[in-house]
């Protein structure tokens, strides 16, 4: 874990085993995001009307109940920030402009906030709340893809580069000190 506290050299400075674990995490995150997209499209669709009907119902009796919204919000309020924190941390270790990377992380969190608020806003404001859901998706989708793909491609590039694929002498996985 100390590799992540004060990284000097970003992803390239990480041990090969740590880079492997990060690459596998990012692959699973990408697959999970693919499933999330499919689920979102299948459930609430991609337009304002379908989003409004999914959360607000075509009639008041078919609207999501407060209990359903609380359950949805509870799960996502814990899972989304943790996922974005880990992805953001890995993304910020990359070699691109720090300012650009920070804006991408902020956009992801802003998109997640819109996504979390939208079901409640649909209940309160109807179609206007559905526009917040679309705004959240437009912020979250590209930023999340960048936060996954940019470090994954950098890690793959590092693993194919023999000069960077092995740690400096004396810093390998085996203990080299005296007993």
Topology:
Layout: H1 2-5, H2 16-44, H3 48-56, H4 66-92, H5 98-125, H6 127-160, H7 162-165
Helix pairs in contact: 2-6, 3-5, 3-6, 4-5, 4-6, 5-6
What would you call the structural class?
A: mainly alpha
Helix content class: over 70%
How would you spell out the order of helices and strands?
HHHHHHH
Largest sheet: none
Low-confidence stretches: 164-179
Question: Could you tell me the radius of gyration in angstroms?
Answer: 20 Å
| Percentage beta strand | under 5%
Query: How many runs of DSSP E, i.e. beta strands?
Result: 0
Number of helices: 7
The global form is: elongated
The rounded distance between the terminal residues' Cα atoms is 23 Å
Mean pLDDT: 87
- The count of domains is 1
What does it look like?
This protein has 179 residues and is an all-alpha fold. It has one domain. It is 75% helix and 0% strand. It has seven helices and no strands. Helix 3 (48-56) packs across helix 5 (98-125), helix 3 crosses helix 6 (127-160) and helix 5 runs antiparallel to helix 6. The radius of gyration is 20 Å and the shape is elongated.
Protein traits:
single chain, 179 residues, mainly alpha, 7 helices, 75% helix, disordered C terminus
């Amino acid at each position: 874990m100390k590799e992540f506290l004060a990284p000097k050299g970003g992803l390239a400075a990480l041990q090969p085993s740590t880079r492997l674990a990060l690459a596998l995490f990012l692959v699973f995150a990408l697959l999970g995001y693919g499933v999330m997209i499919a689920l979102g499209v299948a459930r609430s669709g991609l337009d304002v009307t379908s989003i409004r009907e999914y959360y607000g119902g075509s009639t008041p009796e078919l609207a999501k109940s407060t209990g359903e919204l609380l359950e949805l919000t509870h799960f996502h309020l814990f899972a989304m920030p943790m996922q974005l924190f880990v992805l953001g941390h890995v993304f910020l270790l990359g070699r691109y402009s720090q300012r650009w990377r920070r804006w991408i992380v902020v956009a992801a969190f802003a998109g997640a906030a819109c996504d979390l608020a939208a079901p409640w806003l649909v209940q309160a404001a109807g179609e206007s709340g559905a526009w917040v859901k679309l705004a959240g998706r437009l912020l979250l989708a590209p930023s999340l893809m960048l936060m996954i793909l940019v470090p994954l491609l950098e890690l793959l590039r590092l693993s194919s580069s023999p000069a960077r694929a092995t740690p400096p002498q004396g810093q390998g996985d085996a203990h080299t000190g005296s007993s």
